[in-house]
Amino acid sequence: MEALFYIFSIIAIFSALMVISVKNPLTSALYIILCFFALAGFYILLNMQFLAAMQILVYAGAIAVIIVLAIMLLNLAKTKGAIKDFHQLVIGIIAVGLLFLEVILYIDAAGEKKPTGIYTNAIINKVGNTQIIGEFLFTKYVFPFEVASILLLVAVIGAYIFAKK
What class has domain 2-118? Predict the structure, then answer.
């Protein structure tokens, strides 16, 4: 298991770096798909098969197809060169600094004992995490689930109208 973690880590880090370093946007989109698959591997290692399947279906499937479609529709074959505006460089440095600060704070808080929920590993292994997620979606979180489905329906209708023109 530990070897798989390191393999998925290397793949995720390499593909994430390639997303931001390659000049061709289509190649960048393919690397982001590879990164999504590596993240799905992490979910499987954490015994979260449902999230791994959703990661592949939603992100590696739908989102990546939308990215590739946008690249093809906008004809982004050539990207611009280096950052020309100073404010873009400053915003980028601030964003990277905040990201590293967040990682340091997370690592610092990792030693603290976190509260656990009512579902132990034994219950999850007996019932299954997909059933538990389904119960939460259709009981406690039914209203946000329905709002999200309506938003997705509106987005599909908007995409159809946009594509028809």
Answer: mainly alpha
